[in-house]
Amino acid sequence: MWADDQHREPSVERPDGTSRRATIHDVARLAGVSRQTVSRAVNDKGEIDPATKERVLEAARLLDYRPSRFARGLVQKGTVTAGLVIPDLMNPFFPEVAAGVLEAAEQRGWQVVVWDSRIDEAREREALDVLSHQADAVVGYFKSPDDVLARHLGGVPLVLLERGPQQTGFAAVGIDAAAGLAQGMAHLVGAGHRRIGMLDGVHGPGPRRQAFLEEARRHGLPVDDSWIALCPEHSVAGGEAGMEQLLDARPDISAVFGFNDLMAVGAMRAARRRGRRVPDDLAVLGFDGLSLGELIEPALTTLHIDKRRLGRLAVEQVARLRAGEEPLRGAEAWVVPELVVRASV
Q: Of 107, 159, 225, 345, most Cβ neighbours within 10 A?
């Protein structure tokens, strides 16, 4: 089931000029009635003076107030709906994570509402505004900091994907980039590579870049900003553009680590255009373990992530929060990438 992209939640201006969705208390205050009267009016239940009802409905219209699914009594007892926020459904990584969430939710008899945020923080906040009225809990990828998420969450339990448990106060499921890069960089160095670059995204340094730099320093490799190309998007085309930059800045590079497999495939295409053979002239290491890595020539060496397990762990976190239990932390809340050696290194 997919959330309606057209749906807009009501909003009320805060004293600081920002906005939030309108609540039943806002409608009651504007209409000059009790919260119970608002509930009776908008749900067309109980005895209520027609003039009062009209005043309440007009206040609700002015505030664009919509009662939550709970207030409307639309939820059957025992039914659980989880909201899932995915940043890019065109990237094959995220549907696999979603599949893990859907499988685990189905096993528990839960429903799932999916929202594509399109790597847009405004759409992330909109998703929370909507899903806090539609879902019992939210799972997803969010770039916004904790305090921003909390303002839009409305008290609904939240589980963050790919944000390490030490990086947030919310329950989370992370990917142990450091453990993955330790394997990948050791393999590249063991193959004789000393001039290793990275293709990263433009959305700011994250755990994968940090782990790459730490491993480069640990192996005594020369590394600075000129060894990292910022790709315009996390796609094959983005990887191609980034690899062109990297080859211009560091023509002596012998290996490259891609933030994800799509960018690594783009690196291979760009290298081929520049007359570089993979792996003879340039070794390429990916991250994610997409199935397409087995289909290209040469097959991509990658740090494979069990994406479905990532989704299943997120559902387990939701179940714990709903039961009033402590969420998983430490190693239990991490997915560790596994080095899969193929022909590109």
A: 159
**Phi, psi of 338, deg, nearest 5:** -120, 130
CA distances from 7 to 64, 124, 130, 133 (A): 11, 14, 7, 11
Q: Please name every residue paired with 140 in a beta bridge, in sequence order, or none if there are none.
A: 85, 160
Answer yes or no: is pLDDT of 6 > 50.
no
86, 132, 130, 82: which is closest to 316 by C-alpha? 82
| Cα distances (Å, whole numbers) of residue 106 to 84, 278, 310, 312 | 14, 43, 16, 11
Q: Which two tokens stand for residue 54?
A: 């009209």
pLDDT tens digits for range 278-328:
999 999 999 999 999 999 999 999 999 999 999 999 999 999 998 889 999
Closest CA to 117 of 64, 151, 161, 147: 161
Residue 178 corresponds to which tokens in the numbers above?
């450091």
Mean pLDDT of the region 197-209: 90
pLDDT of 255 > 80? The answer is yes
Long-range contacts of the stretch 158-161 (C-beta < 8 A, 24+): 159/314, 159/317, 159/318, 159/321, 159/327, 161/97, 161/310, 161/314
Helices 35-42, 50-63: crossing angle, 10 deg rounding: 90
Q: How far is CA 109 from CA 221, 318, 328, in A?
A: 51, 13, 22
The tokens for 88 are: 């890019």
> Is the entire prediction scored with pTM above 0.85?
no
Question: Which residue in 149, 181, 183, 184 sits closest to 163, CA to CA?
Answer: 149
Q: What are phi and psi of 49, to 5 degrees?
A: -60, 130
d(CA 339, CA 239): 21
The answer for residues whose C-beta is within 8 angstroms of residue 305's C-beta and 6 or more apart is: 175, 180, 287, 288, 289, 335, 337
Q: Can you spell out the DSSP letters for 5-43?
A: TT-----EE-TTS-EE---HHHHHHHHTS-HHHHHHHHT
- CA 267 to centroid of chain Cα atoms: 24
Tokens of 22: 């309108």
